[in-house]
Amino acid sequence: MSKKLMTPHEDTLEVIELSVKEPKRFKVLLHNDDYTTMEFVVEILCSVFRKTSEQASAIMLLVHERGVGECGVYTLEIAETKVSQVRARARNAGFPLKCTLEEVY
Hints:
This protein has helices at about 40-45, 55-65, 75-95, and strands spanning about 1-10, 10-20, 25-30, 70-75, 100-105. It is an alpha+beta fold and about 100 residues long.
């Protein structure tokens, strides 16, 4: 989206064109492992990603069956925060749950 602004500059008017871009978006992904319990993954999806029990169970099954599942799409700062929260909670619970982010093109 572009917006033109007219600004006074001495005796003439100067036209300044501003361009507003949508921020880049990033997918947050959970990866399957042989140690993290399904219950813990559902808990993470509900608490960190605000999924319902049904949504969390469906994502958990995708992670289990396909090896990876998408938790949501966010701006970079929010995605990084969610990845950090998952990693910290998994580490505190003694699980090696892997959580990554990937840019959406």
